[in-house]
Amino acid sequence: RTIDLTSQLVKITASITLENTGKETVRNFLIVLEPDTVGNLSYISVKDSLKEDLKLTPTKLENHETGAYSVQLKQPLATGRTTTASLEIIVTKDLVPYPSSITQKEKQLVRYFGNHYFYTPYLTTKQTTSVTLSSRSVENYTKLKPVTQSESTITYGPYNDIPAFSQDRMIVHYENNSPFLTVTRLERLIEISHWGNIAVEENIEILHTGAKLKGSFSRYDYQRDTSSNHHSIKSYRTILPAAAYNIYYRDSNGNISTSQVRARKDWIELELRPRFPLFGGWRSSYTLGYSVPSYQYLYRKSSSEYVLNMRLLDHVFDDMHVEELETYVVLPVGVSDVKVTTPFDVERLADGVTYKYLDHLGRSVVKLRKTNLVEQHIQDLEITYNWQSVLLLHEPILLALALYVLFIFVIIYVRLDFSIHKPEHSKKD
Amino acid sequence: MLGLGKKNPTANNAEKQETLLTLSILTLAAILSFATRLFSVLRFESVIHEFDPYFNYRTTKFLAEEGFYSFHNWFDDRAWYPLGRIIGGTIYPGLMVTSAAFYHLCWLFNITIDIRNVCVFLAPLFSSFTTIITYLLTKEVKNAGAGLVAAAMVSIVPGYISRSVAGSYDNEGIAIFCMLLTYYTWIKAVKTGTILWGTLAALAYFYMVSSWGGYVFLINLIPLHVLTLMVTGRFSHRIYIAYSTLYCVGTILSMQISFVGFQPVQSSEHMLALGVFGLCQIHAFVDYIRSKLSKNDFDVLFSFLVYTVGVLFVFVFGLLTLSGKISPWTGRFYSLLDPSYAKNHIPIIASVSEHQPTSWSSFYFDLQILVFLFPAGLYFCFSQLTDANIFMILYGVTSIYFAGVMVRLMLVLAPVMCILSGIAVSHLLTKFMKNTDSAKPSEHKKSKKLESNYVLKNEISSAFVGVICLLLISYTFHCTWVTSEAYSSPSIVLSARSHDGGRIIFDDFREAYYWLKMNTPEDARIMSWWDYGYQITAMANRTILVDNNTWNNTHISRVGQAMASSEEKAYEIMKELDVDYVLVIFGGLTGYSSDDINKFLWMVRIGGSTDRGAHIKEWDYYSSSGEFRVDKEGSQTLLNCLMYKMCYYRFGQVYTEGGKPPGYDRVRGAEIGNKDFELDVLEEAYTTEHWLVRIYKVKDLPNRGI
């Protein structure tokens, strides 16, 4: 088992060797989370030895109302046989800054509360846990022997024959200056135009969730301190699709001029600097938007049926944590039979209607919402709908008609004389 | 019959050609006037400029979102803490209503335009309208040709552009259009003498009143025109009808604006209009009696009436002034009549750069060749006096006086300069163009004989036309250059050239305001000098103590006192005013010269102008040799006051320029005098990237026993 604590997230990967000691062939096994971590769980997946995803279904156990999953094995496990599976769990908000507020010059220290043992409903014959930290400076850690520390890794174990559901508190207190940046709210707006363009706009609110800044902020010290390893956040990288163009980065006060776009081979890298460096407890918000050509994301299934494949969530920064995501997809005018397929469970809000340029009919908006997401949730959303391509001409025709009527009126007004009496061609004195 | 039939198509054709030409020239001028104002949008972005526009933008947003009634009743608690401000009753709502109307109109047609963009592009849009209305006005005064020249000139005149570039969302942007519209309808009314045009003039006047305080100029100019017409014996029924309609309807309408209220019948500034209205009635009455009575009887009656009415008028006027019903002349108006009045009496008015008297160079800078063409235009107006020409002459002469008194009234002068220059240019060109044509063989012998005493007529005419063309071309280049260089910087984003030629953008203001918005409590109160008040409320959405609406002198003075006092004294004032954060603008690192240290003497003067600030004396802040300096020679009072400490906190350690000691102030060109000090009652909360804006947090009172 590896616990990766280098970033603001807790990433636990465990490779499990299962042995069927029972008498019957087993088709599925159970994964149970510790009661403390259930609430903060963001992502869980299990893969078999061939790196293929296994199906997870939540189940209920005694004492474990939530946080228990039943994993279906691809091949049933016969008595006495073994198989391996790897489990990946990502937990957010589990690293607590301690002390909770620091001055500008201090380092950021965090504490991790975990379990020395792998939490499982089964007997564990042998287990080791290695904890990877972001730096060598560790204040202290619980020393359940055998334990060794080398560089920035602490290795616990091997422990033998640990009974089921055993817990023993592990505390690691160490220095972690990686960005503790949380996206508190992300509104992603995808607008489809059948003229060949999909506009994406993301309204992002970010908060530095690390140790709060105590005392004053000194620009002088900040400018002198050039070391890259600082708990404040100066800039971060956002990755956009390679075809993105018309990129803009602004907030409610206008354009933010401190950003750089670099085109990489397969993506576009955007280096964003918020208006001000973010210290613990400081928040900021911005809007990032771009357009992508629709041929890469919008497909025609049959004569009037279209499929949209867009990411439900896109990359904001590495090791990101999104507390709340709302994705709105604005469909073209006059769609029907909208079907939404999501890669994972998403709350679907009531559809809305929005009016864009010259829409008197209004466009329907699919609204989706999900909380507590990480990078692993960057997956495609599929929307299928029916749409007549004649509607493309709806607005130009409307505009043409309006102008036509206007000109007709002008012509009539100019040609006809509406005055009641003929104005006498007056004498001017 | 045949002849007529033959003649008509050609005349018709020429007419059509002329219409087409006129329309296309006008359209081009209107488009040009819109396009030339877009420099800053293209260079930077669609952003609101300067200070006042931010307030207008904020109120417009409120109006567009909340509707007119809540706007009308809006009590703003974000400004003038702890007093607040009744927005609805203290502004000219014309601008906001106009853009909100545009906004709703666009949305009605489902054109989803942002309210900010409406605000940014409103001024250029209205300058296009101004171009058209200038054409109409000049056409009424002179002819269509002059109108076209004037329209083309007004579309790019820098004096007007200075207040109407995209993003400079201020009252003046639409007020000039309203003013010219009123003049146009007024001249129409005078010419036709119909109630319809009189009422239209009143409506245009109402629009003008609702949008700018400068309407006072208008309501004095029109009566002046009427008075002049009376004196010159041109008074007629047409003028009687036009003026009576305009005055009655216009005054009643203007009183609907709550900020104006009863001023049109009470304040001295409006008395000329009222007086002339009375005179009109008397004049008309006298004319009527004269037509009914014999000459002798009339003379007796006339002299009797003149004396009685004169005495009565003086008596009533005196009584009303003494009883306070007619308010005394306000300070801004005095400074119009006497340029040195404000400087001597009201520091807050004198401290604003746009209230300063205009320098000669800025006349040329803003108007270029118009300055020379203007007298020519005046001459042509005098040479054929009509009612309309007299109006133009009056407008030109009065506005040139006012523009000389106050820089910002250049705006009022610019259109009339264009109109009169347009008249001059068109008149001259028509005259000389004819002569260049005369070289053609198809010429009558008679006229040839008459003009044969001119030598080289054709050549001289061509040369003259060439010179005029050259002047006009140079005017175009000058205007474009001025617009691009002087009037198109948003002042909220600064840009500078780095030594390798690249462009550096200083976006510190928005950085600081955004920091305030994001990282201070919702109800935080921010103290800053009043210049930044509107921007803070609009961009940071925080409560401020004083802002650009300088209605409460004592409150501003209190802030000035805090800035000018020592730390302990300032702390008392800041605690009294419940200040949480203090914001200062500091240019010492970047060389931004309009920062708070350079404005500091005004703070001292304004701070010392009230009773509570009597201990603050301007002379304490000068060095012994009588200079204002921040280095070691500077006065100790200055080196230890709050403003100094906030600006230069920890600046003493910074190297700003090669070869200079640390703490070298690039604006003042001096090494600061007081370097190592700590702040006792404040702590640095935020400083922007280039140190332009520094924000300090006021510490709480210390706990007892510590």
UniProtKB/TrEMBL annotation, chain A:
- Membrane topology per the record? Single-pass type I membrane protein
State the family it belongs to: Belongs to the OST1 family.
Which keywords annotate this record?
Answer: Endoplasmic reticulum, Membrane, Signal, Transmembrane, Transmembrane helix
Q: Where in the cell is it found?
A: Endoplasmic reticulum membrane
**Protein name (database record):** Dolichyl-diphosphooligosaccharide--protein glycosyltransferase subunit 1
> Which Pfam families would you find in this protein's record?
Ribophorin_I
Example of a GO cellular component annotation carried by this entry: oligosaccharyltransferase complex
Q: Which pathway is this protein assigned to?
A: Protein modification; protein glycosylation
Q: What does this protein do?
A: Subunit of the oligosaccharyl transferase (OST) complex that catalyzes the initial transfer of a defined glycan (Glc(3)Man(9)GlcNAc(2) in eukaryotes) from the lipid carrier dolichol-pyrophosphate to an asparagine residue within an Asn-X-Ser/Thr consensus motif in nascent polypeptide chains, the first step in protein N-glycosylation. N-glycosylation occurs cotranslationally and the complex associates with the Sec61 complex at the channel-forming translocon complex that mediates protein translocation across the endoplasmic reticulum (ER). All subunits are required for a maximal enzyme activity.
Enumerate the Gene Ontology biological process terms. Answer: protein N-linked glycosylation via asparagine
User: InterPro entries of this UniProt entry?
Assistant: Ribophorin_I (IPR007676)
Q: Which residue windows are transmembrane per the record?
A: 397-418
UniProtKB/TrEMBL annotation, chain B:
Q: Which Gene3D superfamilies does UniProt cross-reference here?
A: 3.40.50.12610
Pathway linked to the protein: Protein modification; protein glycosylation
**A Pfam family per the record:** STT3
Segments spanning the bilayer are 20-39, 86-106, 118-138, 144-161, 173-189, 195-218, 239-259, 271-289, 301-322, 363-382, 389-407, 413-433, 454-477
- Location of this chain's protein in the cell: Endoplasmic reticulum membrane
One GO BP annotation here?
Answer: protein N-linked glycosylation via asparagine
GO MF, one term, reads: metal ion binding
Q: Which GO terms describe its cellular component?
A: endoplasmic reticulum membrane
- Reaction(s) catalysed by this chain's protein: a di-trans,poly-cis-dolichyl diphosphooligosaccharide + L-asparaginyl-[protein] = N(4)-(oligosaccharide-(1->4)-N-acetyl-beta-D-glucosaminyl-(1->4)-N-acetyl-beta-D-glucosaminyl)-L-asparaginyl-[protein] + a di-trans,poly-cis-dolichyl diphosphate + H(+)
- Entry membrane topology: Multi-pass membrane protein
What are the residue boundaries of the Oligosaccharyl transferase STT3 N-terminal domain, all occurrences included?
21-420
> Keyword annotations for this protein?
Endoplasmic reticulum, Glycoprotein, Glycosyltransferase, Magnesium, Manganese, Membrane, Metal-binding, Transferase, Transmembrane, Transmembrane helix
Q: Which residues form the AglB-like core domain?
A: 516-584
Which Enzyme Commission number(s) are on file for it?
A: 2.4.99.18
Q: Identify the InterPro entries for this entry.
A: AglB-like_core (IPR054479), Oligo_trans_STT3 (IPR003674), STT3_N (IPR048307)
Q: Which cofactor does it need?
A: Mg(2+); Mn(2+)
Q: Which family does it belong to?
A: Belongs to the STT3 family.
What is annotated about its quaternary structure and interactions?
Component of the oligosaccharyltransferase (OST) complex. There are 2 OST complexes, OST-A and OST-B, which contain STT3A or STT3B as catalytic subunit, respectively. OST-A and OST-B contain common core subunits RPN1, RPN2, OST48, OST4, DAD1 and TMEM258, and OST-A contains DC2/OSTC and KRTCAP2/KCP2 specific accessory subunits. OST-A complex assembly occurs through the formation of 3 subcomplexes. Subcomplex 1 contains RPN1 and TMEM258, subcomplex 2 contains the OST-A-specific subunits STT3A, DC2/OSTC, and KCP2 as well as the core subunit OST4, and subcomplex 3 contains RPN2, DAD1, and OST48.
Q: What is this protein called?
A: Dolichyl-diphosphooligosaccharide--protein glycosyltransferase subunit STT3A
